[in-house]
Amino acid sequence: MLYSLGVRIAALFGNAKAMQWVKGRKKQGSLSLSKGPINLKTALRQAQGPDSAEWIWFHAASLGEFEQGRPVIEALKKEFPQYKILLSFFSPSGYEIRKDYPLADEVLYLPSDTPVHAAQWVQRHHFVAAFFIKYEFWFNYMRALKDAGIPLFYISLILKPDSYFFRWYGTWFFRQLKNVMHFFVQDDTTAQLLQSNGLTNVTVCGDTRFDRVAAIAQQVKPFPEVEQFIGGRQCIIAGSTWPPDEKLLVDFYQKMPEEYCLIIAPHDISESHVAQIKALFPDSQLYTELDADQPSRSLSPRFLSLSKESKGRPARILIINTIGILSQLYQYARFVYIGGGFGVNIHNIQEPVTFGCPVVFGPKYKSFKEAVDLVGLEGAFSIKDAGELESVFGRFMHDEKFYAKSSETCRNYLNSQVGATESILKGFKKALFL
């Protein structure tokens, strides 16, 4: 409730994401506190009407968590098509992108975590089960599900010893975990933390997102306009970059061999940020300016007719100024730089790893098990400055044995991690039907 109040205050001061958060819930009827609980209940019943179908509820904080839950949604929908799916999000960045997700019968914002909202929400449909993804601990909803006899499962949960559940003040919080029917966790550490505190309903099955990225790799589609840009050269992709990452790449770009090209896919694709990247790399092209009319071939005539700054030479940098394609573009990369490591945390490294791409990133990576694992295995590499970036990239470009070993390490790691979805499905059927 305090978080919701904070978001509403931020919205009053013009924070764009907070405004979107509030407006989305107002439109849905879930934040109309001045009218009391009747407004929510009436809005829900009028929106849906009588419904005798059985539903399964999936809740994700944002887009990343949705991608972790997506393989489970798809597997359940395939095996149990009779169930309808309600998908809820906390963040606008998840809701706005996936509000038309075809396998969900309803996609909604989750109302703030109050006893009234929670009690009304679980009455919305005839729910047979609920799945919360990773870190989504909404204690009123958890209690309401338990009171209603609706089994709650956690997907891809990962906890650390310093989590508030295991602190001296965490007794009440930990007690709420008893409302969960089963925890499907990512690693042995999480399982041991839960089990040593009396919760034995735990299965270690890994991260479901590996199943998702493996499926993407199997269903990858070609991008003729990107192939035309690459034109037979070796390709480096810098994914989900922020300004500190982009400044590092400037120094490397000045020494990048002619037979290489660089694709930059920034996390922020706003016009102002793209303009900043263009200023750093004046001879770059935008993805939205590419032309796929001609077939892909090495250094084609179209490939040579670029901006004035390139002076007749093929452009060596492509800026991806759109969303939704980066995960598939990694198919073209020899190796990859992942952004965010000089800020709060790195972004997704699983997507490039599934294509066997060695990965480089900044020092903020230790919150992600796969990043820690791959650094230890030398499939991924953490750097602190431009000099270290140039050193690692140089080894990838000039030491074929080193590159091949790192690439094989990434593929082997990916193959060892898939299968979490199947384990969850088996556990779900056992818990629900037996």
Secondary-structure blueprint of this entry?
Layout: H1 2-12, H2 16-28, H3 37-48, E1 54-60, H4 63-79, E2 84-89, H5 92-98, E3 106-109, H6 115-122, E4 126-133, H7 139-147, E5 152-157, H8 171-176, E6 182-185, H9 188-196, E7 202-204, H10 208-218, H11 224-230, E8 234-241, H12 243-253, E9 260-266, H13 271-280, E10 285-286, H14 301-304, E11 317-319, H15 326-329, E12 335-338, H16 350-353, E13 359-361, H17 369-377, E14 380-382, H18 386-398, H19 400-417, H20 420-433
Parallel strand pairs: 1-2, 1-4, 2-3, 4-5, 5-6, 6-7, 8-9, 8-12, 9-11, 10-11, 12-13, 13-14
Helix pairs in contact: 1-2, 4-10, 4-20, 6-7
What does this 3D model show about the protein?
With 434 residues, the protein is α/β, with parallel strands linked by helices. The chain folds into two domains: 47-206 and 419-433, 3-Layer(aba) Sandwich (Rossmann fold); 222-414, Rossmann fold (3-Layer(aba) Sandwich), CATH 3.40.50.2000. It is built from 20 helices and 14 strands. It has helices at residues 2-12, 16-28, 37-48, 63-79, 92-98, 115-122, 139-147, 171-176, 188-196, 208-218, 224-230, 243-253, 271-280, 301-304, 326-329, 350-353, 369-377, 386-398, 400-417, 420-433, and strands at 54-60, 84-89, 106-109, 126-133, 152-157, 182-185, 202-204, 234-241, 260-266, 285-286, 317-319, 335-338, 359-361, 380-382. Strands 3-2-1-4-5-6-7 form a seven-stranded parallel beta sheet, sandwiched between helices. Strand 10 (285-286), helix 14 (301-304) and strand 11 (317-319) form a beta-alpha-beta unit. It is globular, with a radius of gyration of 24 Å.
